[in-house]
Amino acid sequence: xGAETQGLDSKMFELKDRMRQVVSDVISAQDxxxxxxxxxxxxxxSFYTELETENRLEFLSIxxxxxxxxxxxxxxxxxxxxxxxxxxxxxxxxxxxxxxxSLIPKYQVLFKQIGHLEGGVKFLVDIRADILNLxxxxxxxxxxxxxxxxxxxLKELISVWFSVGLVHLQRVTWQSSCDMLxxxxxxxxVHPIRNWADLKRRVGPYRRCFVFxxxxxxxxxxxxxxTALTSDISDSIQSIVRETGSDNKTIADTEDTSKITTAVFYxxxxxxxxxxxxxxGNYLIKRVVRELLAEYPRNLTxxxxxxxxxxxxxWLITEINKHLHxxxxxxxxxxxxxxxxxxxxxxxxxxxxxxxxxxxxxxxxWAVSEALRTILEGPLMRLCAxxxxxxxxxxxxxxxxxxxxxxxxxxxWRLNWKADVSPRGLSSSCGIMVNYRxxxxxxxxxxxxxxxxxxxxxxxxxxxxxxxxxxxIEHKSQL
Amino acid sequence: xGAETQGLDSKMFELKDRMRQVVSDVISAQDxxxxxxxxxxxxxxSFYTELETENRLEFLSIxxxxxxxxxxxxxxxxxxxxxxxxxxxxxxxxxxxxxxxSLIPKYQVLFKQIGHLEGGVKFLVDIRADILNLxxxxxxxxxxxxxxxxxxxLKELISVWFSVGLVHLQRVTWQSSCDMLxxxxxxxxVHPIRNWADLKRRVGPYRRCFVFxxxxxxxxxxxxxxTALTSDISDSIQSIVRETGSDNKTIADTEDTSKITTAVFYxxxxxxxxxxxxxxGNYLIKRVVRELLAEYPRNLTxxxxxxxxxxxxxWLITEINKHLHxxxxxxxxxxxxxxxxxxxxxxxxxxxxxxxxxxxxxxxxWAVSEALRTILEGPLMRLCAxxxxxxxxxxxxxxxxxxxxxxxxxxxWRLNWKADVSPRGLSSSCGIMVNYRxxxxxxxxxxxxxxxxxxxxxxxxxxxxxxxxxxxIEHKSQL
Amino acid sequence: xGAETQGLDSKMFELKDRMRQVVSDVISAQDxxxxxxxxxxxxxxSFYTELETENRLEFLSIxxxxxxxxxxxxxxxxxxxxxxxxxxxxxxxxxxxxxxxSLIPKYQVLFKQIGHLEGGVKFLVDIRADILNLxxxxxxxxxxxxxxxxxxxLKELISVWFSVGLVHLQRVTWQSSCDMLxxxxxxxxVHPIRNWADLKRRVGPYRRCFVFxxxxxxxxxxxxxxTALTSDISDSIQSIVRETGSDNKTIADTEDTSKITTAVFYxxxxxxxxxxxxxxGNYLIKRVVRELLAEYPRNLTxxxxxxxxxxxxxWLITEINKHLHxxxxxxxxxxxxxxxxxxxxxxxxxxxxxxxxxxxxxxxxWAVSEALRTILEGPLMRLCAxxxxxxxxxxxxxxxxxxxxxxxxxxxWRLNWKADVSPRGLSSSCGIMVNYRxxxxxxxxxxxxxxxxxxxxxxxxxxxxxxxxxxxIEHKSQL
Amino acid sequence: xGAETQGLDSKMFELKDRMRQVVSDVISAQDxxxxxxxxxxxxxxSFYTELETENRLEFLSIxxxxxxxxxxxxxxxxxxxxxxxxxxxxxxxxxxxxxxxSLIPKYQVLFKQIGHLEGGVKFLVDIRADILNLxxxxxxxxxxxxxxxxxxxLKELISVWFSVGLVHLQRVTWQSSCDMLxxxxxxxxVHPIRNWADLKRRVGPYRRCFVFxxxxxxxxxxxxxxTALTSDISDSIQSIVRETGSDNKTIADTEDTSKITTAVFYxxxxxxxxxxxxxxGNYLIKRVVRELLAEYPRNLTxxxxxxxxxxxxxWLITEINKHLHxxxxxxxxxxxxxxxxxxxxxxxxxxxxxxxxxxxxxxxxWAVSEALRTILEGPLMRLCAxxxxxxxxxxxxxxxxxxxxxxxxxxxWRLNWKADVSPRGLSSSCGIMVNYRxxxxxxxxxxxxxxxxxxxxxxxxxxxxxxxxxxxIEHKSQL
Lengths: 479, 479, 479, 479
Known about the structure:
homotetramer; alpha+beta; Aminopeptidase; 7-stranded mixed sheet; 11% strand
């Protein structure tokens, strides 16, 4: 057994040595001709590509630890900084420059060289996805701190490459390549695409599917935005992504432009995990609005999302649990009357009322009872408004979709009951969806207010729902 | 008069205030929505575009001085660095990260935002050209040191954007756009294009014109490489860029591929001053070699440049001058016999022989005398070899064209007498041109030898020419 | 009742009047401006498009009868022809010209005008398909003779438009438009495409799918040719169009070019009935051979089809029926030994042996019995060879696929047992398929021999199979 | 000498034999495989291409005479026509079909085969140009009548290929290929292009240059239309095609769309002589109007040509000559007062006044004298109106440009004095140009009126000019 372990250890030892070697080869080739560098860099790329997942962690750790910065050098320059400062601007700028150079990790050179390869940018985006996966698999507080530095270093570079000027807007239609359409279909996570007929509809009349692609990976839809062109702001996803049936034949081949007054963004997807933190979705929405206005300069006046509310039911169950565990600060979730009313529509049970309610919420069985649907509409809409409007994370909306649209300058415009009655929709948000509406002339100010003062612009409907909470609640939320 | 100056002063004062304001507007918009940032950034771009040249210097100085780094902050972090280091890796990485952030000039944010605009990258390339022009107009040692930092900061960003993966190879033919061909014509500085018939020939049969374009400026040829396909390594530019006359009609419309064995790179031009230091020419040559090999996989086996030798005559005159001024270390330029022989072919004069020779070299009159041409061939070829092979700058070839090709791994292969007999060719290099030849299997090693050991690989011809100098000369050059 | 009929009659009467009017409108507009003509022509196109199928017949009959030629005029010119001939060449050419003009049906003008419209050529191709459908639905000898003239007139025009110079070769891959790929899938009748994974394989590595498109209908694949790149001439369609299963993963993403020596054309489809008689398939094969040779100039040396044998089983059943009905001239289908052998593997029955054999051939049940498969291989292969090689229609091969390839210059190279074991394959040709092989240097001569002398070039295998028939048989076939 | 002639004769004899052979080869290959036909057809094409001009006439004569129709066959069918007619519709249609077939010249088969080749359509267009040149070089009444039949046969085919659906509209800009722009420049005969700067302007802002291309010759602009976008209907070509000078810099890079209310077609050119009689110019104008309306849906409301009046001065000189030769029917050209007034501004002379006037008209010297210009404006404008409006050829406007636009439905809108003061403009039309204006809603009716009733729609200005002629004149013109 010992021998075997030793064998493994020595194998691992060799592998680590090889890793260091492959990286050194690129870094030490820096001053020689581009041919040499390119060859060495390609070697490294294929070396990494063939590594197994667990060894990739090893590789990335070595990269972070052994090819980061020279701490001594930094210490030395830091200590001479003060005296340098006193010797005039030239000296000061010079030492700052040296300090800046010394703080650039050695692997940054590597990343730049990889970026020079064909397909290199895509490779780096994928590496960053690997790093982010490793970080989240190790859990907060437990991950190797070098990974964070690596990730930041990569994000820095990637965000330069993904400047909007280098990103291309492309409309996807049935005339687009099968390859592209298959990817659109595979990536669609919000409202999964059932089959090719469904897909054809989503790129057909009364629909617009736009993507951003990047030169370094021209066949890859980096962000995807699905839009429906309608005569009013949709309050249900099923009206947009309908089952294809016999009534399907009635869908016109051409659009009656006089009926198109509204653009409803019903799905937006970022496909590259490695682009986390590089905000392209916002730009995509803006570009699409511009395209649509150019296409329909007269009639098209309303812009809104129809968005899911991921996390609402989870949050609601947590609220119920707190109550069940007698958390004293917890205000009540349902009023006594509501509870009574709900219980009268449930089979007799020994459970606590909240336990019983929790159960029907968790198995979606409430949704098949007309009575329960009617009773629950009031409290669930109210609670959902609370979740969206009042719950915060670092001062901003806790719900990430809400945060995205509010930051872009949208208004929280309408909560829609029975808007997504698919099992998926019931399980994530009790079937509720929300419209974030974009009033083009206000987005700038709204965005500013939200980002600088954490102010959420809500419509009358939303404000009314919030009003149902006792003053102290709202007061608390503003602390 | 005082009032007027005061008026000017107050106007300048206002303008400077406005400059600061415009920059602040972008930087302070950082946290708000992208709409706001974009609007402010566009404002800044058009503000700068409309500034007069002298005010641009002012603007760039303000940018460098007032929107660089916070020195105090850096000092503070520097001083806490040592103690941080002792508190473990996490703390160390953290303070390094903060120090790194603090060393990023504020204007870097600005540049990134500009890069996001359509046409933004081109704008930054142009700004860098402005900065480099300012630096060289102020002269070494006298320019504002902030300009250098600005330029480096921009180069950093630009070199990421101009990763080879984002740059496109394009062949230019008579089917290319007039816009592109006009630019090719305008940018051609090495062997100016006389008219559209000349241009048509340079993109026609037996010629290949390739350019790199970049997504951010798709209509702009960033680097241009002209290649002639021949049956042997050309020894004269006139055989490639001939006068179009009646014999012109004999140029075939189609290529006889069996006659094509050699690719002669006879002109390479970088068109964007703002890309100084971002090496694309080397990549372009490599890509073109690959393209040509794909087109002629069998016969095409020889690759060489036919290059000008800018600076040779200037250097030669300087050598003569040193001698005239009795610089003691100066070895002799021409042998006594040579001088005698030359003088016997010049009109009688009171001048010192070297003065008289200098004169005919400067006015190119030697080139119209067959006798002088014959006599001078020996010494000029020898001296030219010395200039190219022995004269150095920081250990590398002084001549920039030589340095470029040697760094790419070429061999200094053949000096060609009467290779460019145009006035331009005589004035810059006494009509001599040089072939740097690329032996594909050796370029990697040659490049390494040159970059690491400053070794220049020369052909027998070159080495023979050099041998004519006394040993001590060569010895000295190796110090 | 009478009134109702009268109502219908008068309605029909009105409709016919309207038809005549619509056509007259175009023809009488001939001399006026193109605007007028275009407007009238568009009117006619939409008028026809909206007609019900039965009324289209009416319309086409009216077109043929009322807008054909002026018979009196022709008679008149015919009668003056003789005397004209005697008055010299000029007069002769003149009257010939007038006769020629008078023989052009009026509707030819109409067709040309339609051809000028956008989408007009496609419309005419569709009209011709309508006419051909009408002719075949009315049956030979019973159709309106004007329809044949109409069809010929259209074919004349269409064949000019579909000159090969105006037809475009396009390779279809997974990067082609979904629209195109869906059509490829829908049109594939030879070996139906099961799903999108199957489709993806047929345009993926080791496969080439080429189509001809025409400018007048750029989104329509007019002819489709599927080719497999293999290491030998395939003897089974299932090896090419395999079920996609777990072993599917082993299909390489890239092609190992060293393994590719053979191109197997395994499906060719003409999609437009209206192009009947306009031979594009032959051109497509030739163009594809050229493309493939350009792609694989060294290794690719073998070209062959793997073709279905539609009609073989039907023919075989007819042969059996003739025997059953004691047709005296009918030679025997199976030998006595064969019949004995087959019967011993069938359940006992009262039926005549040939009836019993016919039954298992018709329900494909023979194919599930290993014994029967073994026994039947000999006779079925022999009979199939007879069907392909000996059965004729107007001197040429009766089987249309055979005729197509033989006319193109192919050799009847190999009959393959168990080559298509799908129900479809069994029902049409008892699972047998055939390779028509193209020896590039011989196709010209083969084609000539076949077209001029009805000679079929067969391989040794085919000739051996044929030899099994008694001399008199072959003798007869050669009469 | 006799021997030499004999030698030539026998050589010509051989050549003619060879011609017949080459044509027979194609025609007799009709029934064999397409490979054979294609090879033979290519042979014929290169044979013809290499013929000298005089031999081409021989070739075309042989083609017409020996490969036309079978006159006996036609005679035979003609004679059986009458009896056939009595034997019912089927027989009638059948014999008509046979007659129709027999009237198709054998060379028609040849032309179709050529059309199948790549570049074949272009070759046929060029052959037709050869034929038309031969016809006009031999003069009316003297040319070989077979050439006319050949030309008609070709025109028939070519007009099918050039159906508008197969022709592509393309806008030419500075981004178009140099090849295309060079051709545009070379073909411009109406207002010759002076240099590349001039060319750049004609495809730049406030200008639109559109061409039709055809698939069979994609690099060839078949028809070219130059349009100026202006704020009013231009009355002078110099305002559109100005000398490029220092004021050139004031031309904006971008268009102020609010100033664009008018599209002035100032040059239209058909580049292919072989397309004579195939009307594409009319279609091009219509398509361009549609494009422009799509680009400027609101402001652009006026459409007009600014057209030259080729032939006006020639016609005027002929009128003067008739008078000088005392043609009794000839009405006077100038009034007595006009003559007096003109003569007082000419140097004293012995010549007859009309002779003297004729002289200054012929050498354009009148145009440099302000006085003469003033005096002549009245009579020349009046005479020009007469030339355009009253002079007819077969009932239609004699002037071909007038005929073209009137047929398209334009109004003869305004004659412009001093509209083209270039030597070319003075020599062809005494500097006068004319606007044919297109009122979009009236073109259909105008065209009909002109084509059916020879009615020319003229503006008030034109009618006023015509009124100056004595009633009898106008009366006569209306007969």
